[in-house]
Specification:
Layout lengths: L1 E8 L4 H12 L4 E7 L4 E6 L6 H9 L4 E2 L1
Antiparallel strand pairs: 1-3, 1-4, 2-3
């Protein structure tokens, strides 16, 4: 499992947090998701042998947020 922290802009409420969490939870290979609205950081662990990081960032971006 690889640990990652992404900078995600556009999150500012509990709905935003849940939306990002849900988009990542849809992947079986993702675990330990943490969303910090104050800093805009989204941290998680994922199995890089079964999921590409680009797939995960696209899932967040599909919810309307920008991943930097």
């Amino acid at each position: 499992m690889k640990a990652v922290t992404l900078n995600v802009s556009g999150m500012n409420c509990a709905h935003c947090k849940k939306s990002v969490e849900s988009s990542l939870e849809s992947f079986d290979s993702v675990d330990n998701i943490s969303v910090n609205l104050e800093t805009g950081h989204v941290s998680f662990k994922y199995d890089e042998t079964s999921t590409d990081l680009n797939e995960l960032t696209e899932a967040i971006e599909d919810q309307g947020y920008d991943v930097e």
